[in-house]
Amino acid sequence: MSAPILQTQDLGRRFGGLRAVADVSFAVPEGQVLGIIGPNGAGKSTLINLITGHVKPSGGRVLIDGRDMTGAPPWAVAQAGVARTFQIVKPFRGMSVRENVAIGILYRRHGVNVMSHALRAADEVLEEVGIADLGDRPPGELPVADARRLELAKALALRPRLLLLDEVMAGLRHSEIEPSLQLIRTLRERGITIIVVEHVMKAIVAVSDRILVLHQGQVLTSGAPREVLTDRRVIEAYLGQRYAQRRGETPDAPG
Amino acid sequence: MATSTQAPRQAVTPTSRRDQARRALPWLLGLVALLGALGLQSQLYSGQERTVTTIFMFVAMAEAWNLIGGFAGYASFGQVVFFGLGGYFTAVAMSQWHLTFWVSLVLSGIVGALFATVIGIPLLRLRGHYFAIATLGVAEGMREVVINLPGLTGGGAGITVPTVGRDATTPYLGNDGFYLLFLALAALSVLIAGLVSRSKFGYGLRAIHQDEDAAAAMGINTTRLKVLTFALSGFIVGLVGSSYAFQQVTIFPERLFDVDITVLMVIMVVIGGSGTVLGPLLGAVVLQFVSEFLRQHFINLHIFILGAIIIVAVLLLPQGAVNYLREARRTGEYSLLANVRRYRL
Q1: B230 contact partners, CB below 8 Å, separation of at least 6
Q2: Is the predicted pLDDT of residue A116 greater than 80, yes or no?
Q3: Which residues of B touch A104 (CB under 8 A)?
Q4: Between B335 and B183, where is the model more confident?
Q5: Are strands A82-84 and A33-37 parallel, antiparallel or unpaired?
Q6: Is position B304 within any domain?
Q7: Which domain holds residue B174?
Q8: What are phi and psi for residue B219, nearest 5 degrees?
Q9: Tens of pLDDT, residues A160-216
Q10: B206 interaction partners in chain A (CB closer than 8 Å)
Q11: Is A71 on the interface with B (CB under 8 A)?
Q12: Which residue of B has its CA nearest to A108?
């Protein structure tokens, strides 16, 4: 059996006295969709940043395809086939939507060298995420949902094998969430391994094969979505002890 | 196969031909400008010729500053250090090592690029104001070093390039020669900026300018790209400094490391439009021209008036003339007041 596409070992990061992420160990086999949930401040975004090299770990290791990439710069991680979106979208202003996507096509591993070719390839990626008609627009003018699609298109331009989605559905309306979920399923069918960090619980349950729960920087539990959501500790962490107690009295209550 | 490629080709040809025409236009305009500058030479008397030569010099330096400050967004306030190094390297090489000017010129460019690489690796980790102040410090420090090495540089008394007699390794070029030399440097720098602007390299720099974390997440080796750009910029400014030293014959540290030269590069780029090819060219030409005009007509007040003009220009067109025109054409909003509002609020 080949090495998991991503593996972390005792990964941690301190900010001063605060342990934002502590001793997190998990592995993602190729082709899986892993959901990461946790209350605000649980360390979800920091964990993503530790994997991509945007934040240097203060302990532990990150292995990509079994290769030690701990503390590697973000561009090296990106070229190793790991793409990400940012929770707060980071479009390149002053460039068109199409040019934004072309950047990834130029600079990915074995990327193209000619801008006009990259622009043509960028249109295909825009088509894929459903904003083909917005290629000429400046990214600052896009509404939230389209801005998030652009963020996703930029990540897909790298032809990733592992895709880290940091709250791509935050701020979306109900009607906009279903197409996003559909897109994630399509990407998964194409063989892309995906880590979804999300607050929208319903969304994460719908697409994840496995869910990892972070709480105060540590792994609280992980497992199949159903098991995790009925786990008493998870409910406590999310909704408080009193809610968990009340729920405990009626164990069949729907999640 | 033949039938499947025919249909799309018919559809593609008209647009790609228009694309080709649009892409060729800047090169054609550049060529026309170059020929125009060559033709202009015979129409100028020597004072005017020297003024235009200075304009060419600043075009080259503004374009060079724009690579690191405009495209990559790293505002170097010590760019004059490459000018001074190039100038002093050439003066020392010609007077003490008896190298020809042309060899010294190329070596000065390389010295500029190497020095930019050496200081760029640590300094380009700093962002924003920190980078600006650090580069300023390097330039000021280098001037003191040059002053304090009188054995090599002549110290504060200056150094003279041999231009006559047996010591002259290269005959003095004269007004006409320097006009052509600086025109060539200006053309070279505009050409480099034009090539960078449309290339993978240039788009990488724009991405770094906008958001360095996002750029790195797209696979861009930000450190390498920034250092390369700084080196390229240092190379061009080194060439300019070398040519200036030869033109001036005797050079002094105060002039060769004068912070005003850096400030002029910055102002020209900001007024013309940073991150564009045409902006620094336009800024350098207009500012030098206006400055010269004012000097001739308002001897006592010219600095004061020039300052006022610069302030008004920056207030009204904070993004620079070329960027303003581009946005105005796209949005159909030409009002300067609306422009001020967009950038000030």
Answers
A1: B68, B74, B76, B116, B117, B120, B124
A2: yes
A3: 218-219
A4: B183
A5: unpaired
A6: no
A7: 37-258
A8: 90, 10
A9: 999 999 988 888 888 888 888 999 999 999 999 999 998 777 788 889 999 999 999
A10: 92, 94-95
A11: no
A12: B219
Q: Does A109 touch chain B (CB under 8 A)?
A: yes
Say whether A107 and B275 touch across the interface (CB within 8 A): no
Query: Rounded CA gap, B69 and B206, in Å?
Result: 11
Please name the residues in contact with A252: beta carbons below 8 A apart, sequence gap of 6 or more: none
Instruction: Compute, in degrees rounded to 10, the torsion defined by CA atoms A90, A92, A97, A103.
Output: -100
pTM of the model: 0.90
Closest-CA residue of A relative to B19 is: A116
DSSP secondary structure string for all residues of B34-74: HHHHHHHGGG--HHHHHHHHHHHHHHHHHHHHIIIIIIS--
Q: Nearest chain B Cα to A110, which residue?
A: B219
Contact check, Cβ <8 Å, B203/A52:
no
**Binary contact (A78, B214; C-beta < 8 A):** no
ipTM of predicted assembly, 2 dp:
0.90
User: Residue B147 is which amino acid?
Assistant: I
Residues of B with CB below 8 A from A158's CB?
218-219
- In the structure encoding, which two tokens stand for residue B225, read together? 């790209």
Q: What is the pLDDT of residue B82?
A: 98
> What's the domain count of chain B?
1
pLDDT over 90 (residue A75): yes
**Mean pLDDT, rounded, for A124-148:** 94
Please provide the CATH number assigned to the domain covering A1-72+204-255.
Answer: 3.40.50.300
Domain assignment present for B313: no
Identify which of B211, B220, B275 has the shortest CB distance to residue A75.
Answer: B220
Assigned domain for B24 exists? no
